[in-house]
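User: Sequence in, structure out. Go.
Assistant: Echoing your sequence, followed by the structure tokens.
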Amino acid sequence: MNQELDATAGRPAINPWIIAVTVTMATFMEVLDTSIANVALPHMAGSLSASVDESTWVLTSYLVANAIVLPLSGWLSSVIGRKRFYMSCVALFTVSSALCGLATSLEQLVFFRVLQGLSGGGLQPSEQAILVDTFPPAKRGMAMAVYGFAVLVAPVLGPTLGGWITDNYTWRWIFYINVPVGCLSLLLSGMVLEDPPYLKQQREARRGKPFRVDFVGLGLIAVGLAALEIVLDKGQTEDWFNSIFITRLSIIAAVGIMAAIAWELWHPEPIINLRLFRDRNFTFAAVGVFSAFGVLYGSTVLLPQMLQTLMGYTAFQAGLVMSPAGLVTMLEMPVIGILLSRGADARWLIATGLLIVSVAAFWMSGLNLEVGPNQVIWPRIVQTMGAGLLWVPINTAAYAYISRNQVGNASGLFNLIRNEGSSMGVALSTTLLQRRTQFHQARLIEHVSALDPETTNVLGRLTQAAQAGGADPVLAHQQGLGMMYQTVQRQATGMSYLDLFWLFGALSLAVIPLVFLMRPAVAKGGDMAAH
């Protein structure tokens, strides 16, 4: 059955929460797929007779395809209808997920992941636009809380769920689990979704007119964003600009994106409406979400990596340490939605969220390699609580002054910026981690000298321990030197992790003043008041 629309408000007569749950299901699975496959890469490589380095294209291909579709979703929705576009994305995502599980070679898996990324990229902005149109401004905070559940909780649970599935079944099931959820979402979407009147009017206005597509803008955007995503994802493994491959792609990305910006600003019917940045709420909300998700995803990569490489955790144990943060965020989201619906100024909530994220990052920068699980769990919980506190109001503030007929375009653009912030945070983390490790190792080695009494004492004890294990004096001395070097390297790596957490804290603090350049966005009397 198709829902009926209220003739005066243009809002669905069906309970909006049914719509919210329906569109969140598929989005949750799509966001989950950005992180769930990470832990299964070695298993995929072994099963498909590929190297681990080659298997990383399973992740890269998905991110590239995702980035290309995100900014185009608003335009595609206006052309073919949002309901039709959304359901097409769900259907293709479900089918491509099944095909990923059935893949018999790495080439097939990468191709199906491209299809999965193309379809998945349309789900997030479509859901956000649907929620904005479904809920009145006064209740929009609660709607964004539902969306925040998918965007914030799924990446936290992904590695844990992926590790458990891979250990107990096979890596193929991390894709198969999408199929029943996708089928249910597709069935419910057909029953409860309907395009709002203004989208129907836009399609009616186009009827009978020549169908024009901005192919130049489309091509520039696709090439520029694809090249940028590959640079961010592969830059560290290819040694950045020492690689001809990365250098060429960086030039292509820069030229493509700059040309796309110039072209889209000039074109009378652009695929991406960059003029949305004239709205200062949207602009500063975009800066805030770019920075916040860079910090959040950078920490999400660094913390489990630190636990596994330096503290002896398995992938599943590291996931268990990270998971409580996701559960706390689930409980937090409705509270934030209620605060917004009762008139809280979104700007103060965003600033408080950034401050909490900063405090948590500085807290992490004070850890050491001897801490227990509880000492890691709590700062992570605090960090995701801060991210949850800013996520709902930053979305509310971003759309507060956007006209309804531009909501789809704004949603695609906003989600692209969030996605690129996440990619930038991960790329920055992996690069600076290696650079700072080299720096700290050089500084620590300055204090390791044959003339230093402490060094001599430590080396003597290590050599004696090796001799006690059955090694001859020469071999025992070499083993002692090796153990001393491993200790230096471990400490240098640990210090570099702490440096990055400190940097994330400073970055979160630096963004706070920008929040108050936005206009207030306060829900009053069923509408969003502008002051």
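User: And one key feature?
Assistant: Strands lie at 521-524, 527-530.
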